[in-house]
Amino acid sequence: MKIVRAGICAAWVVLSLGIRLQATPTLQCGAALGTKFNLEPPAKAVPQQLEAVDFIPNRVALNEDLVVGGAFDARGVTFATANATTPHWDGSVGGYYVRRSSAAGCAPQFEGGLPPITVGGNVFTSNGGVVVAADRERDVFFVADLRFSNANSGWSAIGLFRASSATLLNRTLCPNGTHTAAQARSCWTGTPPAMIDPIPSGGTINALDYPSIAVDERANGAGTGAGNVYVAFTGSSGQGRVVVNLVSCSNGLSCSAPITISASGENVAFNGTESAYVQVRPDGNITITYLDQTNQNQNSPTEIIKFVMCEPGGAPKAPVCRAPTVVATEAQTISTFELNQALSSENFFAFTNARHAHRLEADGTVTTFVVWDRCAEYFTFIPNPNPNQPALCLNADVVMRTSTDSGKTWSATTAVNTDPGHQFFPSISTDDSTGIVNIAYYDTEQDFLHKRMVVALNQIAAGTTQVGAPIALTTTPIPWDADPNQTALPVDDFDFHFGMKARGMGTPGFSRVYVSFTSTGDRKGIYQGQALPEQNNNLQKLLY
Questions:
Q1: DSSP three-state, residue 108
Q2: What are phi and psi of 184, to 5 degrees?
Q3: Do strands 194-196 and 423-431 pair parallel, antiparallel, or not at all (unpaired)?
């Protein structure tokens, strides 16, 4: 399958299956690699990973969007290494990055580490896993992250912040540059942040994995739950199992207690992928996908992709949820376990990653799309010297299933991209203004050794479930890891997912997709005295 390179103006034709994009959209942040989306000095370089992004179109000016990104930023880590000049963000590795300018380019104007939250005398600092959700209707942004207590590293919870667009555009409350701790509080605590189920305050769930977040963006009065914010996360049940939890918060951050939505007896995956992933349907119903690994062991990589739909209760009342249904039983998952290398030629942790999105159809029904990555071919020794060690994946693919009956039944598995090399870490987002579904992922097909990667995207036209040809969001293949000896980068090699969001104005040529991803690019940074390609959170904008 040939990747189409972006840069030509869009042309539209009407087909029997609906309106479909035929020509290539336009890249806005640099075709080769996108744009570095942080303000870190190259002389004091550390990695940024695990990205998130959302935006409000035209909020800065005509065709200029207010964009908020998040990432794990190692500037919040104190290193007992030779890199003593690394700046310290008061222990916060939860980075935020905001573009609010109409100046040329896609770089952010300010950044910082999400501030600590104190509950019951215990200080909870960010452990990363930052996720972002914009509420276009009410003109606000929400950011959530995983939190650890300074008093007991075993206490963990979810932090939830709210900032209006007016605050983010205010240069007094949120000045340009890299924020101090005081400036981070000024920017993000105008609405007191919420702590979701912290153990020291009497909570019962100990959060284990990075959260997922979604907002019901229906207008006020449109129905129960309009404006509510939903946070899903995995946590310990206290009975030796991992469960999926859902919390419902008002737009002003008054939250319900967590409810468990996974089935009794299940053991849910927790691996940094936001394995509990939440979205809101156009009708206000809440949906979650997650991976059930109850029957998984090191000799059997099988995981069951589950789907749950919940009816809103109106926060702070909790939703009412149905029993989980099975999307697919995936017998060829990507699994790291004790290996540092799950994908051939790649030196980072990787796990199968499921995401979903919804589309409102012309007849008022809703189509649900679920995408995930799987291993099409494993490398195995004959005879196998260590049968308990997971197999190395030689060829990872991105696949999809759909449902038109609220997740009761699902289509057969179809390909998003099954080309040679690895396609992995899929993200999916529907442009509600046009009905176009966008699927983005990493792709190593262009590199003979399948190490260097680009970011690719496929679109599904309104009214269809047929996947279009891949589009290159970056055109220069680069390696994810910049350190050939794996000694200078001062954090473990992980990523698990990147951020992507599509929104539009309902007119062809005025929709956009933002993708925030890890890139070593062509810039050099100094890591513990070594000059290496700098690992950053990069941003790309696709206009279509």
A1: coil
A2: -65, -40
A3: unpaired
pLDDT above 70: percentage of residues in the chain = 84
Residues sharing a CB contact under 8 Å with residue 150, sequence separation 6 or more, in sequence order = 91, 122, 123, 124, 125
- Please compute the mean of the pLDDT values over residues 337-341 and round it to a whole number: 56
Question: What's the rounded mean pLDDT across residues 340-364?
Answer: 89
Buried b (16+ CB within 10 A) or exposed e, 155-168: bbbbbbbbbbbebb
Amino acid at 343: L
What is the rounded CA–CA span in Å between residue 221 and residue 226? 7
d(CA 517, CA 495): 9
Closest C-alpha among 460, 458, 543, 473 to residue 509: 543
- Coil, strand or helix: which one is 94? strand
- What pLDDT is attached to residue 427? 97
Q: Residue 8 pLDDT > 60, yes or no?
A: no
Using pLDDT thresholds of 50, 70 and 90, give the confidence band for residue 327: very high
Q: Of 222-226, 331-335, 412-416, 540-544, give the lowest mean pLDDT range.
A: 331-335
pLDDT given at position 461: 97
CA 418 – CA 396 distance, rounded (Å)? 8
HSE of 141 in the Cβ direction (CA atoms, 13 Å)?
28
Residue at 83: amino acid letter: N
Sign of the CA dihedral running 367, 261, 223, 192: negative
pLDDT of residue 376: 94
The region that residue 378 occupies, defined by phi over 0 for left and psi between -120 and 50 for alpha, beta otherwise, is beta
Q: Within 10 Å of residue 331's Cβ, how many Cβ atoms?
A: 12
Contact of 429 with 339, CB cutoff 8 Å: no
Q: Rounded to a whole number, what is the distance in angstroms from the first to the last CA of the chain?
A: 21
Please provide the average confidence, as pLDDT, over all residues in the chain: 87
Structure confidence by residue, pLDDT tens digits, 460-479: 999 999 999 999 999 999 98
CA distance 262 to 242: 9
Compute the chain's Rg from CA coordinates: 22
At 81, list the tokens: 């290494």
Please compute the mean of the pLDDT values over residues 487-499 and round it to a whole number.
Answer: 70
* 499: exposed, middle or buried (Cβ count in 10 Å: 0-12, 13-18, 19+): buried
d(CA 81, CA 335): 31
3-state secondary structure 480-529: CCCCCCCCCCCCCCCCCCCEEEEECCCCCCCCEEEEEEEECCCCEEEECC
Q: What is the widest separation between alpha-carbon atoms in the chain?
A: 66
In contact, 450 and 489? CB cutoff 8 Å: no
How far apart are alpha carbons 213 and 277 in whole angstroms? 8
DSSP three-state, residue 331: coil
Please check whether residue 232 is in contact with residue 268, taking contact to mean a CB–CB distance below 8 angstroms.
no
pLDDT over 90 (residue 481):
no
In 3D space, the residue among 12, 58, 28 whose CA is nearest the CA of residue 462 turns out to be: 12
Q: Please check the confidence at residue 391 and state whether its pLDDT lies above 70.
A: yes
Can you tell me the distance from the alpha carbon of 354 to that of 232, in angstroms, rounded to the nearest whole number?
14
Strand, coil or helix: what is 404? coil
Neighbours of 100 (CB within 10 A): 22
